[in-house]
């Protein structure tokens, strides 16, 4: 039985490798007055920063409010894996959004990665962007799933090449005896996520967006001109976008009932000798296995192994995080047995019951975006874009997402965890087959 503890949090960044290798530390002011703008965005992760940036690019006067630091939440702590697709199996919702809606979601799943590519180029963001990714198979049935997936990507018109690899072929990219083969594609990749997000914030600032940190939003007062109150100030705006995701807490009860904060954890080893790094991940790709409780890993730019996993539906982390994660890593790469672990951290993923991002409007002028269910680095960029489109009066793509059912976890906070834990146990049992 694992001992659990709360995540170690403060108003500054967590104990991550990303915080330690950030290009610069953001120090935006705290909001201490009453101001007005066109759109106020709450939450300074990928969703909030990119919504604000997309709006600023369209000429809106934008204010961004972040409770701690830019990218303090999941966006500054994740595995850094840029993965295509939006949510899980949008075909399930054909009766809600029609065939065209399903197609729109698939197209957005392709476009999402291009937004990151464009951002990095346009704003010259130094974030160690690398293309290349492998899904890896632990069981023969995973290989069958990958073959079906490869065919599916072709069928939906994905222009990128997906290559099925047998055990030996996979070793050009990922060299572990654990894997039976894989599915490689060059359109997914990896980044230092904190550096991407603070680079995007700087781009926003360059376009005149006003950013406030250490500015927790305590109340949203609806009306013709909604008011967003912080502990020391207030913003009056024509539109509000709520992008606090798993960290929004109880600010809006209707939203928190639809999302479960679940923790995931990452360790970073010390930099590996070049030959060892090349031996283990010769393709320098990002890697995921297909289980519900998956392992994900990649090399950092300075050749550390960044190894993640360990979904925990209580939102807590093991009290012996380093040793639990080391064990998982060594199961894949026994060669790392004696390597030291320099950083270990966890963050909250916002899980939605049907594993599709949740977008919508609380009223004509208050929108929200949340619940990427652990797959948000690229989708956040896409959902931010369509929310900006909606505010600019092009509502088609936003409305497709808003029509997806958003299921409330029955029974509130206390019941949400056991329910998901039961669901998770079911998927773990499937993983074991
Ligand atoms: C450990 C981990 C690994 C992951 N790995 C991957 C991966 O490899 N690939 C992938 O695609 N996805 C991954 N994810 C998921 C991905 O990181 C998230 O989906 C994405 O970052 C969500 O971005 P966000 O902006 O919506 O939320 P967040 O980044 O969590 O940002 C929300 C922000 O809102 C702020 N906030 C909340 N409430 C308020 C308030 N009242 N007032 C002001 N500010 C507020 C918070 O402080 C926070 O900074 C991972 C997540 C975790 C935790």
Detailed description of the structure:
The protein is an alpha+beta fold. The chain is built from 12 helices and 19 strands. Strands 4, 5, 6, 7, 12, 13, 14, 15 and 17 form a 9-stranded mixed β-sheet that branches. Strands 2, 3, 8, 9, 10, 11, 18 and 19 form an 8-stranded mixed β-sheet that branches. It is globular and about 60 Å long. It starts with a strand and ends with a helix. Flavin-adenine dinucleotide (FAD) binds next to helix 2, strand 12, strand 17 and helix 10.
Distance between the termini: 23 Å
What's the gyration radius in Å?
A: 21 Å
User: How would you classify the quaternary structure?
Assistant: single chain
**Spans with pLDDT under 50 lasting ≥5 residues?**
none
Q: Helix proportion of residues, in percent?
A: 25-40%
Q: Ligands in the structure?
A: flavin-adenine dinucleotide
Please give the largest β-sheet: 9 strands, mixed
Q: What is the mean pLDDT? A: 94
**SS strand fraction:** 25-35%
Structural class given helices, strands, pairing? alpha+beta
Instruction: Write down the overall geometry.
Output: globular
Tally of contiguous helical segments: 12
What is the number of strand segments? 19
């Amino acid at each position: 039985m694992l001992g659990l503890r709360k995540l170690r949090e403060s108003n500054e960044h967590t104990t991550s490798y990303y915080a330690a290798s950030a290009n610069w530390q953001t120090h935006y002011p705290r909001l201490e007055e009453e101001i007005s703008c066109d759109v106020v965005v709450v939450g300074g992760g990928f969703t909030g920063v990119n919504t604000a940036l997309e709006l600023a690019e369209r000429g809106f006067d934008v204010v961004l409010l972040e409770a701690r630091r830019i990218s303090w939440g999941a966006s500054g702590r994740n595995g850094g894996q840029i993965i295509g697709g939006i949510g899980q199996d949008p075909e399930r919702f054909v009766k809600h959004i029609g065939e065209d809606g399903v197609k729109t979601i698939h197209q957005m799943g392709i476009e999402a990665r291009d937004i990151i590519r464009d951002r990095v180029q346009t704003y010259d963001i130094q974030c160690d962007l690398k293309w290349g990714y492998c899904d890896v198979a632990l069981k023969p049935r995973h290989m069958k799933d990958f073959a079906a997936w490869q065919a599916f990507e072709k069928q939906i018109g994905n222009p990128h090449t997906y290559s099925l690899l047998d055990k030996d072929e996979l070793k050009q990219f990922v060299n572990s005896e654990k894997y039976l083969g894989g599915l490689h594609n060059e359109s997914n990749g990896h980044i230092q996520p904190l550096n991407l997000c603070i680079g995007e914030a700087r781009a926003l600032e360059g376009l005149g967006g006003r950013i406030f940190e250490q500015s927790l939003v305590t109340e949203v007062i609806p009306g013709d001109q909604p008011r967003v109150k912080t502990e020391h100030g207030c913003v009056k705006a024509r539109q509000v976008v709520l992008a606090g995701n798993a960290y929004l807490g109880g600010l809006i009860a209707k939203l928190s009932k639809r999302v479960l904060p679940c923790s995931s954890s990452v360790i970073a080893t010390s930099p590996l000798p070049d030959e060892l790094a090349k031996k283990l991940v010769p393709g320098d790709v990002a890697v995921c296995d297909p289980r519900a409780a998956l392992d994900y890993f990649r090399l950092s730019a300075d050749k550390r192994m960044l190894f993640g996993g360990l979904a925990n539906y209580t939102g807590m982390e093991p009290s012996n995080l380093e040793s639990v994660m080391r064990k998982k890593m060594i199961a894949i790469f026994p060669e790392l047995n004696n390597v030291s672990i320099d950083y270990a951290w966890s963050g909250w993923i916002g899980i939605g019951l049907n594993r599709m991002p949740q977008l919508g409007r609380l009223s004509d002028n208050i929108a929200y975006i949340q619940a990427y269910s652990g797959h948000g680095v690229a989708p956040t960029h896409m959902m931010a874009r369509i929310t900006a489109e909606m505010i600019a009066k092009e509502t088609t793509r936003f409305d497709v997402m808003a029509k997806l059912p958003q299921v409330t976890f029955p029974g509130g906070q206390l019941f949400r965890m056991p329910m998901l834990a039961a669901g998770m146990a079911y998927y773990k049992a499937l993983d074991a087959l």
